[in-house]
Please model this.
Amino acid sequence: MKKLKNGHELFVQKSKRRKVKIVVIQLLLLVLLIALWEIAARLYWIDSFITSSPSRIVKMLGELGSQGLWTHIWTTLYECIIGFVVSTVLGCAIAVLLWWSDFLRRVLEPYIVVLNSLPKIALGPIIIIWVGAGAKAIVMMTVLICIIVTIISALNGLLATDEGKILLLRSMGASKWQILTKLVLPGAVPTFLSVLKINVGLAWVGTIMGEYLVSGAGLGYLIIYGGQVFKLDLVMTSTVILCFLAAIMYFAVALAERLLRRK
Model:
């Protein structure tokens, strides 16, 4: 028994060391890439006017700090989070409804496939006419990009439930609601968590795409403005901030996934 306990402790320690090693290597790789970027710009291996450089990005951050940078960050973050939450909740609810009604699922399935293949950017002018120019249009674009993928992914997770288990519950007199809440939904939790991770990336794509179409503030607005006046340092700085925000949002979802898996 003691040997088994020691073996388990060694395995846990080894697993923790491996995780720490992975994180350290990831950070070192990031530092190396930033250093190579800066060195290449200073030695004129690359044109820093086109590619910018870490030092120029830091300088631009200082300039933007006095020009309402936090307003632009908050605008984009707010639009992204609202679109992410609405599309995820609504998409999962529709997926449950389609699982509940086989007839409805068969009727709507071709339309869902067509909507998924439709370039959402083509609906931009229509969205602006429907909801007006501003944050509503950007959130709507985000929802349109995320919701179809959410529906398809969540529905596949619900339909993946073992038919044998469903038949067993039915034979024991379980109602459809009990089958959904006691078997199907708990079994689809890993799929729902995967949907959250996918929607993090899609939500940022939808938000920036919406800001490309219509915005007076936000990081997408800064990127467009920087490109129009050839301030590529502004473009790269906004892009770096976007990457940082997307990473924070992804890690928040990953942390929520770990907490749920422990329960």
The chain has twelve helices and no strands. The first helix runs from residue 2 to 42.
